[in-house]
Design brief:
The complex is a heterodimer of chains A (441) and B (305). Chain A is an alpha/beta fold and 441 residues long. Chain A has 3 domains: 99 residues, no CATH class; 265 residues, von Willebrand factor, type A domain (Rossmann fold, 3-Layer(aba) Sandwich), CATH 3.40.50.410; 32 residues, no CATH class. In chain A, 38% of the residues lie in helices and 10% in strands. In chain A, the strands form 2 sheets. Chain A has a 7-stranded mixed sheet with strand order 1-9-8-7-2-3-4, with helices on both faces. In chain A, α2 runs antiparallel to α3, α8 runs parallel beside α16 and α10 packs across α16. The radius of gyration of chain A is 27 Å and the shape is globular. In chain A, 40% of the residues are buried. By secondary structure, chain B is of the alpha/beta class. Chain B has 3 domains: 148 residues, P-loop containing nucleotide triphosphate hydrolases (Rossmann fold), CATH 3.40.50; 47 residues, no CATH class; 88 residues. In chain B, α1 crosses α2. The interface between A and B is medium-sized, with 26 and 25 residues.
C-alpha cells in the first residue's frame, strides 16, 4: 500500500498541495483502519487526511480518479479483493506521469473546456464562451466594464484606424512611429481621468509638522521658522499591485498602461509592479527609474548587455518614458524571459509562493493580460488564493469581449475570482480600467 | 488517558439516521477516523449545512457530554481555559479574617508571620477557586466529552496557536497547580464558516471535511425525515425552489435548517403548491433578509425552474 500512496501524495505535491509527512502517516493509518473494500470510504479516508481545503479537494478529486480507477466488474477488480492489504497494486494505477510533479500539458482525462468541434465554427465558440463567462458572473461577483462606442461610430479594427486614435486596437501590428503617435494621446486621457475623478494626486502642502526637522532645517535662520517641514509618510504596504503580462502580444498595452498609471500611483510607494511572461519578476524599481522625471543625472535604463537582443520588431519601441523606450525597459529586466511562452498558471503560482504576493485588506490587485496561456494548465486556484487575500481584484483584458476565453485563453477559469473585468483593447479601454482603480483608492 | 471506543462508520451512519440526520458516508468515515487516529475534525462550509449539528449528534451517539466553546473576535485564554475566581477569593479572605488573625497572633515579628502565611498561601489558589472554562472542562471531565469549538475562524490567530498547543496533547498547565492531563481524550470538532483562512498548522493537525449544501435527493430525504406530514410533490417543489435560490446571488442563502422550517411552515398553513400568496405568507421562514424576500416575491417564477 505504502508505495502507491506515496506516489499519489507525490503527485498531489506536484500540483501544489503541500502534504506533510505527518499527513501521509495519517493517511496510511486511515487506510489501514478503513480497508480497501469500499471505494467511497477509501476515497473519503484519503480526502479527509490529505486534502485540507476546498481547492486542495478539487486537485485531490482530479488525481484520485486517474490514480485509483474503479474496479472493472462488480467486486471483481484486482484491487478490491478483500484482505489484499499488502497489495502494491491494490488500487489500480493508471496515470504514469503523475508522480513526476512536472506541470505538463493537461492530461487526456481532464475535461477540456468545451468541445474542439466548436473551434471550427467561431460564432458558436464565442457563444459558448460567453455562456461560460455568464455562468461565472452569476456565481462569482464579476462586473464587466466596456467602453461603448459612441453613437454613429462603427465598430471593428478597420473603423478604429480611421477614427479616434484612442480606439486603435493595440494588439494589431504597429510600427514605432505609430506607437509614438498613440503615445501622444496618453496625456489627454490622463487629464480626462484626473478631471473626472475630481481628486488631487500630487502631494499636498498640508499635514503634520515635523518638530525635529523644523529645528534642524531652520538653524541657518537662527531658529526663525522660514521652512515648515512636514512629516514624511511612513513606508507602508503597497495599496495597488500591478501584475502585467509583458509577452509579445500584450507588451504594448502594458507599456501604455504603466505610462498612464504612473500619473496616479506613486510607483514604489503606493504601487508595486510585477511583470511576467512565465514567471513573476519585480519590476517596481525599473519602472520607477524608467519614468523618473527631472534631475537629468539619473542613469538611462540599463542597456541589455549579456542578453542577445530579441529578433525582429519589439513592441513598445515607440513608447518612450523620460529614460528610454518601454522595449528597452523590458530587455533590462533581469529574470524575465521574453521569448518564453506565456504561462499564467506558473506565474501566478510563483507569485503566490513569493514574498511579492499581494495581500492586505486595503490592497488592490490589478492584472493586465489576455489570459492566453498556450494551453498550459491555468491553475485557477492560485488566483483564487491570491484573490482571497486582497481587497479587490481587477483584470484588464486587452481583447474585445467576444474573444475572451476563446482558443487558448484561460480567462474563463480566472474570471470567477475577479471583481471587475475591463475590456481594454485600446487606449480608451485602458483609461477606463485606470478609472476603476483610481475610484477604489 | 483513555481512548474512546470507536463506532464503525456503518454504525455511525445508522445512529445518525435514527436521530433524523441524513449523514453521508464521508461524514461517517471522517468521524470514525477521528476516533481511530485520535485527531480533531475540522468541518468547513457555508452556514446552515449542519456542522454544529454533527458535533451535537456525535456527542449523543457516543453518550458523551457536549462542551461547546463559541469563538468570537477577542476570545482569549482566560475565557477559553480557566480563570481564578477573584470574587470568591476576596469573600473567603473577608470571612476568614478572624481566623487569620488567630493564626498570626503567636508570631512575634513580620518574618515569622510571613512564614506562617506562606505555609497556608496555596489555599487560595487551589481547585476550589478555579473557574474552569470550556477547554479545561473538556479536559477534566470524568465522562467522555465531545468538545465543539464553534466558528473557529472568528477567533484571532493568537488564539488559534494556543488551541494548537492544547489540542496536541490534551493537557494544560496551570502555574499554581501544575499540569492537568485529560482523563478521557476528548473528541474535538472544530467548525469554520470559511470567513478567514485558517492556518496551515491547524489544518494539518485536523481531519478536514468540507460540507456543502446537499444534493437535490439528499435534501428531499432530509425534509421528509424532519417533516413527516409533507407530501412528496410539495417536498420536491420546495427543495427545487430552495436550491435555485442558493444559485441566485442572495444576501443570505437559505441553509438546511431554514428549508426545514419553511417546510414546517408550509405544512402548518396547509399549502399544497407554491403560489405567490403562499410564498408571501411563509417566505419569512426561508429568507432572513428583507431585500432577498422582496427580490424573490417580485418574480417568483424565476426560481421555480
Amino acid at each position: 500500500m505504502i508505495p502507491a500512496l506515496g506516489r499519489f501524495v507525490e503527485a498531489l505535491r506536484g500540483e501544489g498541495v503541500a502534504v506533510s509527512p505527518a499527513e501521509l502517516l495519517d493517511a496510511t493509518r486511515a487506510v489501514e483502519a478503513i480497508g480497501l473494500e469500499d471505494r467511497a470510504r477509501f476515497r473519503a479516508a484519503l480526502a479527509t487526511t490529505l486534502a485540507k481545503g476546498r481547492r486542495q479537494r478539487e486537485v485531490f478529486e482530479r488525481l484520485f480518479e486517474s490514480f485509483f480507477a474503479p474496479p472493472p466488474g462488480p467486486g471483481k477488480g484486482k484491487g478490491t479483493r478483500p484482505g489484499s492489504s499488502a497489495g502494491e497494486g491494490a488500487p489500480r494505477r493508471r496515470a504514469q506521469g503523475g508522480s513526476s510533479g512536472a506541470r505538463s500539458r493537461p492530461r487526456a482525462d481532464e475535461p477540456r473546456p468545451r468541445a474542439r468541434a466548436d473551434e471550427r465554427r467561431p460564432e458558436r465558440k464565442v457563444r459558448a464562451m460567453v455562456e461560460e463567462v455568464r455562468a461565472a458572473r452569476r456565481v462569482g461577483r464579476l462586473r464587466v466594464v466596456r467602453v461603448e462606442p459612441r453613437a454613429g461610430e462603427t465598430k471593428g479594427p478597420e473603423a478604429g484606424l480611421r477614427c479616434d486614435p484612442g480606439k486603435r486596437d493595440l494588439k494589431r501590428p504597429m510600427t514605432g512611429d505609430e506607437e509614438r503617435e498613440l503615445a501622444r494621446e496618453v496625456p489627454k486621457l490622463v487629464e480626462r481621468i484626473r478631471l473626472r475623478s475630481g481628486r488631487r494626486f500630487r502631494a499636498s502642502r498640508s499635514g503634520r509638522l515635523s518638530p525635529r526637522r523644523l529645528f534642524r532645517e531652520n538653524v541657518a535662520s537662527g531658529g526663525v521658522p522660514f521652512v515648515l517641514p512636514l512629516r514624511r509618510p511612513k513606508p507602508r504596504r503597497p495599496r495597488v499591485v500591478l501584475l502585467v503580462d509583458v509577452s509579445f502580444s500584450v507588451a504594448r498595452s502594458a507599456g501604455y498602461f504603466l505610462l498612464m498609471a504612473a500619473e496616479f500611483l506613486r510607483i514604489g510607494r503606493d504601487a508595486r509592479v510585477i511583470a511576467f511572461v512565465d514567471r513573476p519578476v519585480d519590476a517596481t524599481r525599473a519602472v520607477r527609474r524608467w519614468l523618473a522625471r527631472g534631475r537629468g543625472a539619473a542613469p538611462q535604463v540599463r542597456a541589455p548587455a549579456a542578453r542577445p537582443r530579441r529578433r525582429g520588431r519589439r513592441p513598445g519601441e515607440g513608447i518612450a518614458g523620460p529614460r528610454g523606450s518601454f522595449a528597452d525597459l523590458l530587455d533590462s529586466l533581469r529574470g524575465l524571459n521574453l521569448d518564453a511562452p506565456s504561462d499564467y498558471g506558473r506565474a501566478l503560482h510563483g507569485l503566490l509562493r513569493s514574498e511579492l504576493r499581494p495581500r492586505g485588506r486595503d490592497t488592490i490587485l490589478v492584472v493586465l493580460g489576455d489570459g492566453r496561456t498556450n494551453r498550459l494548465d491555468p491553475l485557477p486556484w492560485t488566483l483564487e488564493e491570491i484573490a482571497r487575500q486582497v481587497r479587490a481584484l481587477l483584470w484588464l483584458v486587452p481583447e474585445p469581449e467576444e474573444q475572451w476565453g476563446t482558443g487558448d485563453s484561460a480567462l474563463a477559469h480566472y474570471l470567477p475570482f475577479v471583481d471587475v473585468a475591463v475590456e481594454a483593447r485600446d487606449l480608451a479601454g485602458l483609461a477606463r480600467g485606470l478609472t476603476e482603480i483610481v475610484r477604489r483608492l | 488517558m483513555s481512548t474512546p471506543a470507536a463506532l464503525t462508520p456503518e454504525a455511525i451512519e445508522s445512529a445518525f439516521a435514527e436521530r433524523g440526520f441524513v449523514c453521508t458516508g464521508e461524514v461517517a468515515t471522517t468521524l470514525y477516523l477521528a476516533d481511530v487516529l485520535g485527531k480533531p475534525v475540522l468541518l468547513e462550509g457555508p452556514p446552515g449545512v449542519g456542522k454544529t449539528e454533527i458535533a451535537k449528534l456525535s456527542a449523543a451517539i457516543h453518550d458523551a457530554e457536549l462542551v461547546r466553546l463559541q469563538c468570537y473576535e477577542g476570545l482569549d485564554e482566560a475565557k477559553a481555559l480557566y480563570e481564578w475566581s477573584y470574587g470568591k477569593q476576596m469573600l473567603y479572605v473577608q470571612l476568614l479574617r478572624e481566623k487569620t488573625a488567630e493564626l498570626l497572633a503567636p508570631s512575634a515579628d513580620l518574618r515569622s508571620a510571613l512564614a506562617v502565611l506562606k505555609s497556608h498561601g496555596d489555599e487560595f489558589f487551589s481547585r476550589d477557586f478555579l473557574l474552569p472554562r470550556p477547554l479545561l472542562q473538556a479536559i477534566t471531565s470524568e465522562r467522555p466529552v465531545v468538545l465543539l469549538v464553534d466558528e473557529v475562524d472568528r477567533a484571532d490567530e493568537e488564539f488559534e496557536a494556543f488551541l494548537l498547543e492544547v489540542l496536541s496533547d490534551y493537557q494544560v498547565s496551570v502555574p499554581e497547580l501544575g499540569t492537568i492531563r485529560a482523563k478521557h481524550r476528548p473528541r474535538v470538532v472544530l467548525t469554520s464558516n470559511d470567513t478567514r483562512e485558517l492556518s496551515d498548522a491547524l489544518r494539518r493537525r485536523c481531519l478536514y471535511l468540507y460540507l456543502d449544501y446537499p444534493s437535490f435527493e439528499d435534501e428531499i430525504r432530509i425534509v421528509e425525515s424532519r417533516v413527516p406530514g409533507i407530501g412528496a410533490t410539495l417536498a420536491q417543489r420546495l427543495v427545487r425552489f430552495a436550491q435555485s435560490l442558493r444559485k441566485a446571488e442572495l444576501r443570505k442563502s437559505p441553509g438546511i435548517a431554514e428549508v426545514v422550517d419553511w417546510a414546517l411552515a408550509l405544512v402548518a398553513v396547509g399549502a399544497d403548491s407554491l403560489s405567490p400568496a403562499v410564498l408571501g405568507r411563509t417566505l419569512g421562514a426561508l429568507l432572513k433578509n428583507r431585500e432577498d424576500v422582496d427580490r424573490v416575491l417580485a418574480e417568483p417564477s424565476r426560481f421555480r425552474a
